[in-house]
Amino acid sequence: MDAGTNGRGEDAWNSVLKAQGEEREKRIAELVSSMSLGDKIREMSGTTNLFKQLYMVLHYNKFPFLAGGNRRQGIPPIRFTDGPRGVALGNSTCFPVSMARGSSWDRELEERIGEAMGVEARSQGSDFFGGVCVNLPRHPGWGRAQETFGEDPYLVGEMGAALVRGLRKHVMACVKHFACNSIEESRFYVDVRVGERPLREVYLPHFKRCLDAGAAAVMSAYNRVNGEYCAHNRHLLRDILKGEWGFKGPVMSDFLWGTRDTVKAALGGLDIEMPLRIHFGRKLKKAVRDGRVPESLIDESVTRILRVKAAYAEAGDRARYSRECVACGEHRALALESARKSMVLLKNEGGLLPLDRGSIKSLAVIGKLADMPNIGDKGSSRVRPPYVITPLQGIRDLAGEVEVRYHDGSDPGQAAAVAAGCDAAVVVVGFTGKDEGESIPYMKGVGGDREDLSLRAEDVSLIASVAGAVERCVVVVEAGSAFLTAGWRDKAGAILVAWYPGMEGGRALAEIVFGEVNPSGKLPVTFPEDNGQLPYFDKRARSIEYGYYHGYRLFDKEGMEPAFPFGFGLSYTEFVYSNLRLSAGVLEDGGSITVKADVTNEGERAGEEVAQLYVSCPAKAIDRPLKELKGFARLRLEPGETGTASFELKTEDLAYYDEESSSWRMEEGSYTVLVGSSSRSGDLPLSSTFTFRKSGTGS
Ligand code: BGC
Q1: Ligand 1 atom 3: the closest Cα is on which residue?
Q2: Does 575-693 carry CATH code 2.60.40.10?
Q3: What's the 377 CA to ligand 1 centre distance in angstroms?
Q4: 459 is catalytic
Q5: Dihedral of alpha carbons 672, 676, 681, 682, sign
Q6: Ligand 1, atom 12, residue with closest C-alpha
Q7: Assessment of whether the complete model's pTM goes beyond 0.70
Q8: What's the 255 CA to ligand 1 centre distance in angstroms?
């Protein structure tokens, strides 16, 4: 960030930057008290000039959106840009969507991706990244599910925190959309009714996790929670976020309809209105003058804003920022690594995959999506990479001597005839930004929710035709979240979920198909057998109840069998779990236990496995889920090699939120630890117990 410019007030800002800790806080307070009401209020809203605003109606995200900033005082503006599958500016690297990256369960990789995004943002004039989306898709058909990492608060929190750790080295990371934003088409008005316990245990913990990892700002959601718009929601913003969690940064509104009322927003805890000055600006000044908003609240907001600006003023590594590093080789390699690790193999009958290029002579590639750059929705998260490798291109590039014959699938009979003349077929079906994604007002047929998770009827009949014509039929599905497989999965020999795999996706897909890469992704969402297994969802709901159970917790509770469980994913090799050990049999209040398990690669190929740890609580005092994810570890193992997955369980990991006392509680008793390859009980071969004891209680 450039402090830039000259002027009388600049000294005050420079003296803020020179100080640290309490001294910096003191100088910020002095600066704020020296600012006029007008200057302070200017810090609290978007300041992109009219020309750029008009330009961005047609070319959204062409420039960073500005907020605040004061030339005279040398205070820089915030320079906002979107994500999360890359930087929305210019021709940035397009990574797989977050749901895909959630399938990698790879924190270390996500941190590197965050770092690359931070570098690309800074290189294109932005210092504030609004692409840490950690909303929980209570129903997997939420149109923007592709922007988040999965259905589980722990997984989403871990991956979101990793993204933040990478980003914060270069930019202010903004976590969104606070909170309970998971219906797209009614996002501007829906009232999410949610009890305090589900709110604290299910819908909020991952936000806190990202803040603890160093996120600089929070974006409030459009929707209401328990009757109040999120940007005005005192309970969410003041009581929980700024109060209990002690968050010291600013809350920014979601854009345009994210703020509805000047006084309610200011009193509720909103600090920055984006992207324009509609409810803040003049109206806010008047509200302060009329005594409807105390000036102390304005001072508090400005303090929060200046605090993060100062913290990031010297952040980063300027030598690394240049146009050349945008979509550079290193970042494209990262996009490829991410695509390789995120695809999920759901079915592989008789070891159909990988296809051996030495023994097949011809391969049919079928479906219009095979030949289409399909990298996700076209709303605010849109990234425009310099190129996209489609599945067809990826397969052609790696096919070697194998003849590739393509048909777009528009005529299933002809497609089947092409497949019949080949040794194997890869059918690529699924969704695009027209079927799911951000819903933009007045733009019909773009984005929105998928209330019904079925594939399109044309896709189902294409699969049937091709699978009927060739013995070895691989179905690849591009999607942002779960879909139904019941009507067609028996016909496919192999099923691979590619998600929206980013600019290098086609290459990663081909590598998996031909066995150069062993698939290792695991589902971050439960794939149901039918729509009826999912929580109630109404994309036009004015009001909706968000209960305690969704995802695998709901399947466990109701004893329902999903099509493919949370955490599931096949490999070309076989992993065997053994030797579970706990560092202690008793967990004392405030302490921790280390859980270790061995994983052996018993197959003939090297591979990566995501070992998962679930905990089952005693549930005598209160209803608890049958089990909850509390740890995961990714291991790379050579054939015959044994590795150890290690997890740490802390007291607070066992806590539940007690609505009566408004506090977190732990129940004494016996807890079961389960370790294995997915959330399905049959995939959790290792189990053991430990006792949790509160301090002062006898043995
Ligand atoms: C989206 C946000 C996005 C913002 C700015 C809104 O419509 O909900 O996620 O950051 O636009 O583009």
Answers
A1: 380
A2: yes
A3: 13
A4: no
A5: negative
A6: 380
A7: yes
A8: 6
Cα 231 to ligand 1 centre (Å): 14
Q: How far apart are CA 518 and CA 514, in angstroms?
A: 9
Task: Give the residue, by CA position, lying nearest to ligand 1 atom 7.
Answer: 255
What ligand 1 atom has the least distance to the C-alpha of 275?
A: 5
Q: What is the DSSP string of 668-683?
A: -EEEEEEEESSSSGGG
Q: Going by CA atoms, what residue is nearest to atom 6 of ligand 1?
A: 255
pLDDT tens for 210-232 read 999 999 999 999 999 999 999 99
Ligand 1 atom nearest the C-alpha of 130 is: 10
Question: What is the CA(80)–ligand 1 centre distance, in A?
Answer: 11
Helix extents (H) in 213-323: 234, 262-268, 282-289, 295-313
Distance 55 CA to ligand 1 centre (A): 17
What's the confidence (pLDDT) of residue 8? Answer: 54
Indicate the angle between helix axes 107-123 and 153-167, nearest 10 degrees.
40
| pLDDT of 7 higher than 60 | no
Instruction: Flag the least confident range among 46-60, 398-412, 646-660.
Output: 46-60
Encoded tokens for 600:
């052996």
pLDDT at residue 441 greater than cutoff 90: no
- Between helix 107-123 and helix 329-342 the angle, nearest 10°, is 150
Is the backbone peptide bond immediately before 64 cis, with ω within 30 degrees of 0? no
Q: pLDDT tens digits for 640-686?
A: 999 999 999 999 999 999 999 999 999 999 999 999 999 999 999 99
pLDDT at 65 over 90: yes
Identify the residue whose C-alpha is closest to ligand 1 atom 8: 254
**d(C-alpha 141, C-alpha 679), whole Å:** 21
CB 427 within 8 A of CB 473: yes
What is the rounded distance in angstroms from the CA atom of residue 164 to the CA atom of residue 176?
12
How confident is residue 340, by pLDDT bands cut at 50, 70 and 90? Answer: very high
Work out which ligand 1 atom sits closest to the CA atom of 147: 9
Question: 26-35, 51-60, 128-137, 234-243: which range is least confident on average?
Answer: 51-60
| Other CB atoms within 10 Å distance of the CB of residue 591 | 15
Find where tokens 């000036």 sit: 295
Residue 4 has pLDDT above 60, yes or no: no
Catalytic hit among 82, 127, 254, 556: 254
Residue of the CA atom closest to atom 4 of ligand 1: 255
Residues 46-275: name the CATH superfamily: Glycoside hydrolase, family 3, N-terminal domain (3.20.20.300)
Q: Could you tell me the residue ranges of all domains in the chain?
A: 46-275, 341-558, 575-693
Give me the count of residues in the chain: 699
Q: Which residue from 144, 380, 442, 443 has its CB within 8 A of the most atoms of ligand 1, so it is best to mutate?
A: 380
Task: State the closest ligand 1 atom to the C-alpha of 187, by its place in the atom list counted from 1.
Answer: 8
Residues in contact with 642: Cβ distance below 8 Å, sequence separation at least 6, in sequence order: 598, 599, 600, 601
Instruction: Give the mean pLDDT of 522-539.
Output: 98
Residues with C-beta less than 6 Å from any ligand 1 atom: 82, 130, 176, 254-255, 380
Q: In sequence order, what are the beta bridge partners of 673?
A: 615, 688
From the CA of 130, how far away is ligand 1's center (Å)? Answer: 8
Q: Domain 341-558 sits in which CATH superfamily?
A: Glycoside hydrolase family 3 C-terminal domain (3.40.50.1700)
Q: Which residues contact 540 (CB under 8 A, 6 or more apart)?
A: 185, 186
